[in-house]
Amino acid sequence: MEKTPRGHRLWPPPTATLLVLFYLFVATFAAFTPPDNYLFDCGASSSTTPSNDRIFVSDSDARKYLAYKGKDIQVSIPSANVPSPIYLSAKIFEKESAVYTFHVTQPGWHWIRLHFFPVQNTNHDLQNAMFKVKTDEFVLVQEFKNNENPKWTFEEYLVNVTTERFSIIFEPDADSFAFINAIEFVSAPDMLIQDSGSMLFPKGDYSGLSNNAFQTIYRLNVGGPIITPENDTLGRSWESDHQYLDPGVTASNVSVAPNIIAYPEGESPLIAPPVVYASAIEMADANVQVPNFNITWKMDIDTAFTYLVRLHFCDIVSKSMNDLYFNVYINGKAGVTGLDLSTLTGSLASAYYTDIVVNSSMVTSLSPLTVQIGPMNENTGTRNALLNGLEVFRVNNSVGSLGGEFGADGKTTNGAGKGTVAAVGFAMMFGAFVGLGAMAVKWQKRPQDWQKTKSFSSWLLPLHATDSSFVSKSLGKAEEENQTSPNSASPPIVSPPAAAGFASDHRPASTADENRNPAEVPAISNHSETAIRANFSALSGR
Ligand SMILES: *[C@@H]1O[C@H](CO)[C@@H](O)[C@H](O)[C@H]1NC(C)=O
Ligand SMILES: *[C@@H]1O[C@H](CO)[C@@H](O)[C@H](O)[C@H]1NC(C)=O
Ligand SMILES: *[C@@H]1O[C@H](CO)[C@@H](O)[C@H](O)[C@H]1NC(C)=O
Ligand SMILES: *[C@@H]1O[C@H](CO)[C@@H](O)[C@H](O)[C@H]1NC(C)=O
Ligand SMILES: *[C@@H]1O[C@H](CO)[C@@H](O)[C@H](O)[C@H]1NC(C)=O
Ligand SMILES: *[C@@H]1O[C@H](CO)[C@@H](O)[C@H](O)[C@H]1NC(C)=O
Asked: Start and end of every Malectin-like domain (predicted)?
């Protein structure tokens, strides 16, 4: 992948008008067809189609991807207060772990979306289910807890899949069970997250993002309406920002028609659809007094993790170029100073985003994540500041977990697990005693001529020199990735490379139909952002 740092490029002006027209065209028709597109409606007797282009296959069609030795339990209810029919049925896994394994046709970013709703049934109280969800490398949910929040929820993750097979594992606690209502495992475009971002503190560049796994914690369409998966270019949900907006200052909504938003080089509607850039929060009465305040958003985060904060900007307020300069702060530290969008993008109403990695161990004094925008102190241009969109992703910790201190292999962030340490220590001690005992016994029975033989190893070796107890289960690691990443300079249409990556021996479980029906009623449009918020917050105890 091209690792050119984004952000400080200058726009060649002469052909701007033509290019704007070109990008307008592109913005309207940008489409991404995911090479891998598995949508499972677990426990459902027939497939479910919440919208035209998303078909969740039935449980029997999903079963061929499932390895599970326990009893097959499916539960469903005819109706409930849920945003989509995918929540009306669930599959329950007792005692045994359940493993869904997907064939990956093309390596790279993939969304994992896990949907949960505690369906009422006679035998299992799903609200008290206790389980873990992981992949071979990453822990997604360390301990599922739904008892405080008997609502529908979903969790979204983004992982860079480099193996030909990819598994999602549901692991019930010893005396409990696991459940799942729907699973999405869907390719995302390479350009979605670049390898490098800027580091807030200590200030500098951060590279290596492409090897991390992410969990979406907040995704806000600032100053605008909620956006449902059906209205997003990549099936994402965007909530409204106003519950995080500090009411202390006067900020106001501003919006323009989405079809005027342009996407310059390096930007794409796949990063965020035009409707995100077409609305913003700006300083109210910016021109009346001499405004001197910051607009502040506060969001709770678990400070044990590092976060990737993606800020979306688009100057939809200026009347002329080079008139708006402002500062962006994260937890009191300057994220961007003197941000001049029109120079960065070459025109007004052009999309721009920037990624900032926040090491939350540096900001413990301010527990919530705080994003602020405010005017520059210099007397340049109009005193205003704006923000159009905000995404906050949790980055996996050093043991590959997004849920807590334990990694998929049982290691912890403190070096090793408490339980693991004790168990391993005891095993080693026990092993040592057994070994010493065996050696002592052998010593007793040593051949009389042992001193004469060249080697005593043959009789002093352990009783059973077993082949190996550490036979690794080969999961079919990809030999190589000869995938050609779309160059960031190419137009923002990402089409699936015909024969890149892995050869396909399976058809995807379902295929996306790019035709969106404008008359389609959005599945969760009648839900408040509080409900959407519940999506991201319920499981991780934020
Ligand atoms: C995924 O990871 C591999 C191996 O580190 C890397 O070569 C590739 O560029 C990454 N893909 C993306 C989309 O970042
Ligand atoms: C902005 O618009 C949202 C609805 O989209 C509304 O709830 C909110 O109160 C508005 N905020 C301001 C500051 O006007
Ligand atoms: C805005 O916030 C930053 C960081 O918290 C602070 O340094 C700056 O003085 C604030 N600006 C105004 C005008 O209050
Ligand atoms: C985050 O800060 C902690 C404490 O200063 C430091 O140990 C750690 O290396 C930092 N992480 C990164 C990614 O810089
Ligand atoms: C996340 O996991 C990857 C792969 O295990 C690792 O290389 C990376 O350092 C982890 N990220 C952090 C911030 O520890
Ligand atoms: C989604 O898009 C359709 C048309 O494309 C529109 O009618 C509807 O209002 C949009 N819904 C939301 C929540 O943006």
From this structure: 41-395
- Residue pLDDT tens, the chain, 542 long: 333 334 333 333 444 444 444 444 444 446 899 999 999 999 999 999 887 778 999 999 999 999 999 999 999 999 999 999 999 999 999 989 999 999 999 999 999 999 999 999 999 999 999 999 999 999 999 999 776 667 899 999 999 999 999 999 999 999 999 999 999 999 999 999 999 888 887 788 889 999 999 999 999 999 999 999 989 999 999 999 999 999 878 899 999 999 999 999 889 999 999 999 999 999 876 555 667 889 999 999 988 899 999 999 999 999 888 889 999 999 888 888 888 898 888 899 999 999 999 987 766 655 689 999 999 877 667 888 999 999 999 999 999 999 988 888 888 877 654 444 444 444 444 444 444 444 444 445 444 444 443 333 333 333 333 333 222 322 222 333 333 333 333 333 333 333 334 433 333 333 333 333 333 323 333 233 333 334 443 333 33
User: Which residues' Cβ are closer than 6 Å to ligand 3?
Assistant: 292-294, 329, 332, 372, 374
Number of domains the chain is built from: 4
Tell whether 178 and 274 lie within a shared domain.
Answer: no
Closest ligand to 241 CA? 2
* Cα 281 from Cα 361, distance rounded (Å): 29
Return d(Cα 509, Cα 516) in angstroms, integer: 20
**119, 125, 129, 135 alpha-carbon torsion, rounded to 10°:** -30
- CA–centroid distance, residue 358 to ligand 4 (Å): 10
Do 518 and 391 lie in one domain? The reply is: no
Alpha-helical regions (H) of 192-247: none
Our mutation pick for probing the ligand 4 site, out of 203, 209, 307, 359, counting the most ligand atoms within 8 A of Cβ, is 359
Q: Confirm or reject: Cβ of 510 under 6 Å from ligand 2.
A: no
| Dist CA 533 CA 95 (whole Å) | 32
Q: Chain centroid to CA 503: how far? A: 26
Structural domain harbouring 147: 37-187
